[in-house]
Amino acid sequence: MTSTPVNRRLRIGIGGIGIESSTFCPHRSTTDDFRRTRGQELLDRYTWTRADSDLAAGVAWVPLLHATALPGGPVEAQSYLTLKDELVTRIREAGPLDGLVYDIHGAMSVVGLTDAEADLTEAVRAALDSVGTPDGTGRPMISAAMDLHGNVSRRFAEPVDLLTAHRLAPHEDAWETRERAARNLVRCLLDGTRPHRAWVQIPVLLPGEKTSTRLEPATSLYASLADIERLPGILDAALWVGYAWADEPRCRAAVVVTGDDAGLAAAEAGKLARRYWDARRDFAFVGPTGTAEECVARAVASDKRPFLISDSGDNPTAGGAGDLAYMLGKLLAHDAIRTGQVTAVHPGITDPAAVARCFEAGIGAEVTLSVGGKVDPRHGGPYELTGTVVALQRATDRKDRAEGGAYDRGVDMAAVRTGGLTVILVERRKPFHTLADFMGPREGGLGIDPRTYDIVAVKIGYLEPELYDMAADWLLALTPGGVDQDLPRLGHHRVERPLYPFDEDAYDTGAAGGEGPDLTPVVLAPLAG
């Protein structure tokens, strides 16, 4: 569909709310967990908004509100309404806009809602329609930049003109995705085009640790997106694996192909969805796995150093509580670690009371602490830890281009050593993805170098780039928690069935197998210009 091309400087807003939320995690996310960015600080998040960008002469960027947080449990209803109301109010106060770069995640859960992004997007669409465009014709366009672990229901997709998502997991292309969303929007506005969207969901729901683009079949599936969008009449192709740790009907894989040629977009979306479905049983964990006990034993016995272990079930960057002491107990249950024959560091157990006690005691003091198991007490509860405080670090804000929220916000940290194990306790939920996360600033930092330890047991799933490069060897421990990799163990009951892998043999009939699910895409008509 075409509309009148814009021959003046565009006014494009930027805003969104981003978090992924495990409905199996007892943690509750509040406004205090979100980093809220406005004004020039919001524009400074991106490179393509700068004065030296090739887009500068043709676009006036209008910063609204961007709120993002470390993944966690569902967002409390009032906190969500506070953020939603501010974003909607800022849109209405911004005046006429040609469009919006909608910077979101796609896997936010809110207490009392079943499709939080759809609810938010309907409100955003209504606000944009109320302010209209600067020339008074047509509706402002929305271009969404999303995480590939987001969910795309039809209700969410309907009010959005353009959708795109990351193509790498780990998400080394996150900023590239946001820029693609912005440039696609500018292109459509300048050309006067409003493309068709071919949308289809796939009844497959897999964890990110089985769908990393480091391995096939995800490598080829995601590599094919660039080939699809090079076809004449196609603007963008996107594939979402969905978010496995929310128990909501929308949670499943999805494909959206966007373009002027509705027929071609639908054909390509259908073929991509079928390829994903056909490959469902080929997805495997991104690394070798085992129970916590098995992983600790294999790491101790190995001569590869440092040997990394992922405590995957309590990964705070996927939505885990981050306070389980389950892996702590397994590490200290091994004689070699308990007696100091093997050294290990285990960072990131959230326990503000324990951290405060360490600061009161001071470096060099012996402390007995009740560690972890307070937010999520279901897997062993707190662990009684006696050891020596060896390092302390006060909160220091990080002003970099991290994902925001608790990723940027500093936290008080304390390191306690017992036998060969050094445990890093944190005041609030925090990931340990980089050497800087362990070391801290030169002055007043923890100064813990994970490369000097035999074993590094991190609350994470697949290894982020710095940890991946650091590891001489690695195991993915299938530990319990709010983001348990064993999905059937969690007890989903609200997802739409049949759904693989919960229904392993769904759609299979006869020795040769059935035809599979209906993966005919729905072509969403362009929003009226």
Describe this structure in words.
Pfam families: DUF1485, MlrC_C. Residues 309-494 form the Microcystin LR degradation protein MlrC C-terminal domain. It comes from Streptomyces huasconensis. InterPro entries: MlrC, MlrC_C, MlrC_N. This is M81 family metallopeptidase. It is a single chain. By secondary structure, this protein is α/β, with parallel strands linked by helices. 26% of the residues lie in helices and 22% in strands. It contains 14 helices and 19 strands. It has helices at 39-43, 77-94, 116-131, 154-157, 174-191, 218-229, 262-278, 292-301, 326-332, 335-338, 352-361, 435-439, 465-470, 487-490; strands spanning 10-18, 34-37, 59-69, 99-103, 141-146, 162-165, 196-202, 234-240, 253-259, 289-290, 307-311, 344-350, 366-371, 383-393, 413-418, 421-426, 455-458, 473-477, 522-524. The strands form three sheets. The protein has a nine-stranded mixed beta sheet. It is globular and about 75 Å long. Mean pLDDT is 95; it is low at 399-406.
How does the SSE layout of this entry go?
Elements: E1 10-18, E2 34-37, H1 39-43, E3 59-69, H2 77-94, E4 99-103, H3 116-131, E5 141-146, H4 154-157, E6 162-165, H5 174-191, E7 196-202, H6 218-229, E8 234-240, E9 253-259, H7 262-278, E10 289-290, H8 292-301, E11 307-311, H9 326-332, H10 335-338, E12 344-350, H11 352-361, E13 366-371, E14 383-393, E15 413-418, E16 421-426, H12 435-439, E17 455-458, H13 465-470, E18 473-477, H14 487-490, E19 522-524
Helix pairs in contact: 2-3
